[in-house]
Amino acid sequence: MQQEPLIPLQGWRRKLYIIIFEADTRAGRTFDILLLLAIVASVLCVMLESVAGIRNSYGTQLKVLDVLFALFFTVEYILRLVCVHKPIRYARSFFGIIDLLAVLPFYLGLFIPGSHFLADIRILRLLRLFRIFKLTHYIGEAQQLRRALMASRRKITIFLATVISLVIILGTLMYLIEGPEHGFTSIPQSIYWAIVTLTTVGFGDITPKTVAGQALASLAMIMGYGIIAVPTGIVTAELARNHNASPEVHSGTRLCPHCFTEGHDWDALYCKHCGGTLPRPAKDVAS
Amino acid sequence: MQQEPLIPLQGWRRKLYIIIFEADTRAGRTFDILLLLAIVASVLCVMLESVAGIRNSYGTQLKVLDVLFALFFTVEYILRLVCVHKPIRYARSFFGIIDLLAVLPFYLGLFIPGSHFLADIRILRLLRLFRIFKLTHYIGEAQQLRRALMASRRKITIFLATVISLVIILGTLMYLIEGPEHGFTSIPQSIYWAIVTLTTVGFGDITPKTVAGQALASLAMIMGYGIIAVPTGIVTAELARNHNASPEVHSGTRLCPHCFTEGHDWDALYCKHCGGTLPRPAKDVAS
Amino acid sequence: MQQEPLIPLQGWRRKLYIIIFEADTRAGRTFDILLLLAIVASVLCVMLESVAGIRNSYGTQLKVLDVLFALFFTVEYILRLVCVHKPIRYARSFFGIIDLLAVLPFYLGLFIPGSHFLADIRILRLLRLFRIFKLTHYIGEAQQLRRALMASRRKITIFLATVISLVIILGTLMYLIEGPEHGFTSIPQSIYWAIVTLTTVGFGDITPKTVAGQALASLAMIMGYGIIAVPTGIVTAELARNHNASPEVHSGTRLCPHCFTEGHDWDALYCKHCGGTLPRPAKDVAS
Amino acid sequence: MQQEPLIPLQGWRRKLYIIIFEADTRAGRTFDILLLLAIVASVLCVMLESVAGIRNSYGTQLKVLDVLFALFFTVEYILRLVCVHKPIRYARSFFGIIDLLAVLPFYLGLFIPGSHFLADIRILRLLRLFRIFKLTHYIGEAQQLRRALMASRRKITIFLATVISLVIILGTLMYLIEGPEHGFTSIPQSIYWAIVTLTTVGFGDITPKTVAGQALASLAMIMGYGIIAVPTGIVTAELARNHNASPEVHSGTRLCPHCFTEGHDWDALYCKHCGGTLPRPAKDVAS
Asked: What's the complex ipTM?
């Protein structure tokens, strides 16, 4: 069952691995902080480029920065592939895919104009932030939240199925009552209105004009009152239950070299996810 | 007290019954999946027909599909009536009515133009989805949700009565303060506004313009803050209580042949709802 | 400490009292149901009168109905005053004031045009509904809700004080950033906008146009996310706590003749509120 | 560890200190109430000044009142500095900064027009209200709320980080789908729209027009349903937990003379925050 470790056993690849993938050594932390700054800067860069006024004045400079960031992230991605023992396994892990997605839009943008804006997806890489700053408590609490959401997975599915049925029927009725002359141009459009209304967003781009339409909308909104209570109730009940059960989690920043799982206890010897042996804490390894 | 079983004792009607009403045999599952696909396809068909652009290009084709789906569901409804032992009892059960409602709008549409769009109501038949895919856990959790809502039934009624009183008084005051010249053309219209505001939907099609109106609206919105907390609190408290009490439900997909109740335990011999004897698990019967 | 009973000891006033104030006899129930119908009809009447189209066609008829309803409720109010032992005490009780408020707007309307629409406030009299239909469980649950709200009274006050401070500061900042040219014409107006935004109502009649304004608004909305969680949390925690503590309440529809408190247990001999002796259940008295 | 007390040992400064900083003596209460009235009046004054109509009619009078209030608060601030033993420590405490912020905008307004409106920030000084009226229960409950928010600090941070990532990606997608011609003029603007939508505020100043845009918006809104449940769940679970644990707090209105902490028990001898000795209850001192 145990997979071969991803961390190379020795040589420069092992050193590179510890710098790039771990955050326990000085070099590893420095690298991670630089990476974070690059991510934030490149996302800001993409955002500013989308503002017409700024694009007109600083378009060239922003383009250059764009290329530089893309090169940097490409090199980093290649280095990550190089320094792990089993590149394919890294490339198919969750963070491996995110890392690739952070690079792809730039090259896509060379063929399809505009798609390079999707480089924004790099922001997802920031989720590593919690690891770098040794915010181990955060990892524990994030797991609590995730567990609560997972546990209420089925109730939420049932709830969504009910909401979708409701929204389709409500949309059809409104389409028949109000009709195209009041903005309800088609059933899909009316379903969009029903979602806007039931979720209490209420844009107001389409609104009922007839008495019957306003009466039905009123009914839907008061019903929506009760409906909005359900997901909240589900998540809250789950979190409240978790509270009593969850012991304080003291997890380190070590990464399982077999399956890239994080959040192992300080004294853990084996990965809790794949059962592979964990390296000794990186600090010792690096010294 | 015990009702006569709905499942015929023998012959082709028994075989048909097991295919159409049960989901434990291969034929039953195949039939249910085909039915689901037909439901989704016919609902999509109705939706697309309501889009002016598509209706103009593919109107005839969609009409033909409409007729075919209507025939299919009509035949299916008649088969259901034929193969049960007591057709009236099926016709008056919850799913019997839904099945009829899925067919009626088409025939209604022959007389009242436009009403065939109501065929959308077929989407409700999708609620059987959870049964077909043996999502028995889902049935258990849906029952938990339903039980929590039933238990808080009275509190929600009191809450709604209070909200309705509040909304009528608020609407009247706004009508007097703002008047028809600011969009509050009548008390029912103002009540509609009050509902839009208190539920935090906030379309913005009607908004207070005078200082007094904006002050009263501000008061109502801040009050609405507290009000929205009440249904959430009710449902959550109920769900949290349920949590401790509810044992894991392991229910099968067998249907009580007496009253069409679902969700019986695998080892149940009698229907928990009407006390009628349950058939042996359909798999054995079919083999 | 004990107050003199409000129910007259004998004669026609005692009989009238039992009909008007109690709901346990056949005559009492009939009277209450008639009263409810009159309330609903008169409120509908007021609403319809406010609709311009209907007022133009049926104005005279509605006016006549208005006068008739006003006379009916006036006579009823006088009868209530006459048949209680201490009219002043009734007139100053909660429902005594509501009953007066249901009559006043009509007479006020004779002097101040338009104010007769306030007769809508009669809807509050419907809160007696729960008593008439022996919905004693409802009374128990309404008390649970009231208790939960009372227990979280202080937390809600603190919460509102914080929200008001926040809204004033936010409104001032937006007034300075956006200014009158973008619809933020004054600080009170901007505070109104801040309330509309923080409560997630979002009418959209006033919206930030500048980049700084949109950034501040974004911040406020994300903050509002957390803020809306607080009142819900308060009420839910209180309701969840109540759940474990509250025994099932079995209260009758008897009215304390001393202080008009309702909801006494079937076997109660003394009013739980003022300590006065309760009458034997009205049914026996009336027989 | 213990700091030198801030309350002077004797003389007029001690008397002044007890009047200005404490609320247990008659003079102290009178001073605090006057201060509160001045705060409310000055904030109202600032608000009214921002209304164009009122400014044109009563501009001069309001300006004069503004100057008077500014002088009053300046003198008060200086007196506070004078009568404490260690002025620097007061000036750097939480309320010391608020007191300064209440004065600064006026002087700033002499140089930067408009900035004197920021004097509104004085409203924050009202938070002392709970102390003056001996609302010690309120202080206890405020601490409960604060504790619940502090305990869920990390979960809320994780939640906000997720929401921000989501909002950036959603904004980018909408910018690409809808584009500048439908109001999504830039990515920051689209992110603003995404925040408006996900928080269910829904101004409606920018709305999707294309089918793809409306579909993505529908998805985002239904997701927002689940998302809004999370902070509520976090705070509620924390409050429900607190409930069982928190004993009733009986705190006085005494102020620690070392670190300005409030909310000490009546029989406390030492500050629970800095460990400094507390003065005997001010009443005795003043008599």
From this structure: 0.79
